[in-house]
Amino acid sequence: TALATTVWPPLTTIRQPVSDMSRQAVSILIDLIRRRSDEPSPGARELLDFTLIQRQSDGPPPVV
Questions:
Q1: 44 domain residue, yes or no
Q2: Domain total in the chain
Q3: Please, what are the averages of pLDDT over each run of 10 residues along the chain (64 residues)?
Q4: What is the pTM (predicted TM-score) of this model?
């Protein structure tokens, strides 16, 4: 986000695949509707890739 790079020190963040997460959530919801159930199917959980964006907030403070 813009905030992560404009504050001091720049914040370390996780980049998440939001469109893939949304697509998976809709797929699970459609499956629930088709089965007329409120219990997700056993394969409803999925681990999606993410990226660690390291910036200056993830280490020891600088020596002054």
A1: no
A2: 1
A3: 78 90 88 75 75 85 77
A4: 0.58
